[in-house]
């Protein structure tokens, strides 16, 4: 365990902070002065241009009036109206040009101000770390902590070079609940206002036992503080409580710069890393050819290695409350829950590289760094993908998948054993360059076959035409009981793929219009305890008659099956399906009226539902609605 040190002399740290604050005041005055000068320059330029154009327009009007002064009044009136309209158009165009110039200038100045602020924070963080390291060395020398070879190594005085961590995040902690106490501290501190970073960081890390806990409280304070929604006064002073965050107000300081600053006050080495990210608006297949997806994040040195932190992506919102508690109002906090994304705290490099690519290869923190082209080809995944422990069973899976000559391409995602019983997947397919999700009046979803075999869920896409498609795969972890209630489930995206079909040699027909979701009996076993006896695969080849049997491992009731075929009304097919329950065996008998491809939906519900209590005190078992259990794709032919 690394020895934790907090600067004992608070006044000494505060004194340095006041020096830094004066430097910031000077910098912000320079920003303000520069903005005023540039805005004045633009106003003068636009005014000069306006006067020149107006003079040109007026001279032309006067010349035309001289020519037409003996013409009828109607012509002179029309000329006057035209001049007035041209003047109005000129004024409108000049206003648009002024606004466009101001917008461009503001963007450039903000970029310059951010760079200057980041450079200043870099310098100040170095000075704060120097002060803390100097006092730490004195403290350890006085305490003879260097003498015992069995003591934990001291925190490094100088920032080590970037190297891949020797152990994964899993070896540091396995459950965010391990930080419940320090998280409570961060949430509590976030509801108060502090006038100095010294006070803020001391409140955050004063009771931390490790460097990891220090980084954690700072991370959680930033994610809880909801910095983007803070209301600032226009005349905010640097020595006011919210003045600490004036960089956020002005847009010159971001989450990652603030995290670095706070880490320096806590004595933690931290760097800001610049690069590309697969952020909002990105789609699989997009190349990083401009600055659209430039981003920054942090690496902090804790637990003996550099670890990634992305506070901005880790920040979430309050739930169970419409508004955040006001400063000083601690009574409301008990009813609040602060959501955040733990994936972005100490993220393992092998996972982080799927979403973030640093400009400096060493900061990939990988044993074998990858190229920007490799990064573009990596599947487009979201944090939930890793939270569920998902991985790609095929190492050749790319962000862009190409179909074969029949228009087919398959994406396979593997699940860890402990998640197989609870994960539910869903998908959406649409055209890549448009929002269209239909082809010849049929949903594109019916050109995807989702199935589960063992721990692998497969999505086989059959493109109905040549072109590019976007496959979005969603997931949610639910218990069988939650699924059986029939309540709508919220799915979140775990990964996306671009599907490219260069040419199509086979005419594809949509799958039968069954309930959405996976095909095959795996879902029936996972959620309902129905074990298939006769047919374990999603695709069934049959003659003109078919019997499908299951064994119930727990009581179920009221089975129902519906048959579907393209071009045939479902009601016409209802008479061709029957079911029978004998002891624990459930049998479905299907007679096919003609050859072709059919879809069979099976529904059921629990026999023993929850108990309902009536107003008169009597009770009865509630009945769940019939819930979709599983479905089969059946090819019926005389030859089978």
Structural descriptors:
single chain, 640 residues, alpha+beta, 5-stranded antiparallel β-sheet, 5-stranded mixed β-sheet, 25% strand, flat, disordered N terminus
Task: Report what the structure shows.
The chain has 640 residues and is an alpha+beta fold. The chain has 15 helices and 28 strands. The strands form eight sheets. Strands 6-3-2-1-7 form a five-stranded antiparallel β-sheet. Helix 1 packs antiparallel against helix 2 (73-143). The protein is flat, with a radius of gyration of 33 Å. It starts with 9 loop residues before the first helix and ends with a strand.
Compose a concise summary of this entry.
With 640 residues, the chain is an alpha+beta fold. Helices cover 34% and strands 25% of the residues.
The proportion of residues in beta strands is 25-35%
If you compute it from the alpha carbons, what radius of gyration comes out, rounded to the nearest whole angstrom?
33 Å
- Estimated structural class: alpha+beta
Shape summary: flat
The total count of strands amounts to 28
Question: What is the rounded distance between the termini?
Answer: 68 Å
**Strand arrangement, largest sheet?**
6-3-2-1-7
As an assembly, this protein is single chain
Q: How do the strands and helices of this protein lay out in sequence?
A:
Blueprint: H1 10-67, H2 73-143, H3 169-172, H4 180-190, H5 197-205, H6 211-225, H7 246-250, H8 255-265, E1 270-277, E2 294-302, E3 305-309, H9 311-314, E4 315-319, E5 337-340, E6 345-347, H10 349-352, E7 356-358, H11 372-377, E8 380-381, H12 383-387, E9 391-392, E10 400-402, E11 408-414, E12 423-431, E13 438-439, E14 442-443, E15 448-453, E16 456-462, E17 467-477, H13 480-484, E18 492-501, H14 522-528, E19 530-532, E20 539-542, E21 545-552, E22 556-564, H15 570-573, E23 577-582, E24 585-591, E25 596-606, E26 611-613, E27 619-621, E28 627-636
Parallel strand pairs: 10-18, 20-28
Antiparallel strand pairs: 1-2, 1-7, 2-3, 3-6, 4-5, 8-18, 9-11, 11-16, 12-17, 13-14, 15-16, 17-18, 19-21, 21-24, 22-25, 23-24, 25-28, 26-27
């Amino acid at each position: 365990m690394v020895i934790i040190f907090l600067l004992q002399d608070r006044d000494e740290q505060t004194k340095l902070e006041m020096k830094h604050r004066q430097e910031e005041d000077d910098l912000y005055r320079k920003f303000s002065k520069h903005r005023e000068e540039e805005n004045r320059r633009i106003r003068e330029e636009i005014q000069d241009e306006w006067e020149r154009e107006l003079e040109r327009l007026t001279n032309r009007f006067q010349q035309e009036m001289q020519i037409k002064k003996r013409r009828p009044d109607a012509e002179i009136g029309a000329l006057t109206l035209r001049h007035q309209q041209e003047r109005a158009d000129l004024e409108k165009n000049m206003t648009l040009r002024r606004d466009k110039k101001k917008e461009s200038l503001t963007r450039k100045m903000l970029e310059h101000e951010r760079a200057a602020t980041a450079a200043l924070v870099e310098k100040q963080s170095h000075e704060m770390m120097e002060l803390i390291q100097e006092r730490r060395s004195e403290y350890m020398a006085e305490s003879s902590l260097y003498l015992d070879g069995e003591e934990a190594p001291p925190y490094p005085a100088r920032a080590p070079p970037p190297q891949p961590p020797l152990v994964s995040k899993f070896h540091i902690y396995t459950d965010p609940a391990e930080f419940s106490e320090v998280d409570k501290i961060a949430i509590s501190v976030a509801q108060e206002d502090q006038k100095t970073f010294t006070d803020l960081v001391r409140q955050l890390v004063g009771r931390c036992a490790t460097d990891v806990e220090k980084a954690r409280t700072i991370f959680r304070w930033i994610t809880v503080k909801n910095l983007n929604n803070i209301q600032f006064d226009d005349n905010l002073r640097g020595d006011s409580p919210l003045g600490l965050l004036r960089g956020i107000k002005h847009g010159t300081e971001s989450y990652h710069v603030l995290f670095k600053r706070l880490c320096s006050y806590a004595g933690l080495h931290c760097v800001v890393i610049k690069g590309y990210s697969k952020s909002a608006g990105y789609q699989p297949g997009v190349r990083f050819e401009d600055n659209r997806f430039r981003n920054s994040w942090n690496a902090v040195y804790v637990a003996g290695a550099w670890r990634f932190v992305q506070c901005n992506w880790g920040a979430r919102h309050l739930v169970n409350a419409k508004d955040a508690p006001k400063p000083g109002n601690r009574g409301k906090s008990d009813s609040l829950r602060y959501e955040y994304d733990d994936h972005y705290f100490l993220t393992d490099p092998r996972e982080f590289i799927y979403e973030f690519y640093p400009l400096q290869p060493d900061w990939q923190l990988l044993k074998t760094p990858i190229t920007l082209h490799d990064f573009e080809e990596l599947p487009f995944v979201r944090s939930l993908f890793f939270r569920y422990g998902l991985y790609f069973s095929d190492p050749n899976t790319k962000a862009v998948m190409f179909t074969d000559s029949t228009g087919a391409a398959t994406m396979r995602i593997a699940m860890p054993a402990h998640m197989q019983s609870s994960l539910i997947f869903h998908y959406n397919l649409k055209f890549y360059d448009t929002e269209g999700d239909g082809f010849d009046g049929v949903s594109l979803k019916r050109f995807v076959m989702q199935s589960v075999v063992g721990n692998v869920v497969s999505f086989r896409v059959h493109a109905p035409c040549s072109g590019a498609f976007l496959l979005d795969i969603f997931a949610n972890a639910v218990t069988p009981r939650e699924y059986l209630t029939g309540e709508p489930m919220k799915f979140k995206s775990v990964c996306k793929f671009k599907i490219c079909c260069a040419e199509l040699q086979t005419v594809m027909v949509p799958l039968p219009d069954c309930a959405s979701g996976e095909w095959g009996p795996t879902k029936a076993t996972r959620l309902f305890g129905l074990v298939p006896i006769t047919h374990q695969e999603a695709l069934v080849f049959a003659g003109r008659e078919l019997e499908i049997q299951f064994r119930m491992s727990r009581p179920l009731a009221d089975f129902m099956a519906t048959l579907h075929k393209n071009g045939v009304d479902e009601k016409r097919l209802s008479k061709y399906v029957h079911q029978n329950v004998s002891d624990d065996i459930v049998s479905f008998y299907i007679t096919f009226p003609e050859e072709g491809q059919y879809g069979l939906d099976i529904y059921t519900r629990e026999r023993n539902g929850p108990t309902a209590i009536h107003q008169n005190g009597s009770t009865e078992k509630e009945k769940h609605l019939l819930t979709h259990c599983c479905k089969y794709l059946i090819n019926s032919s005389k030859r089978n």
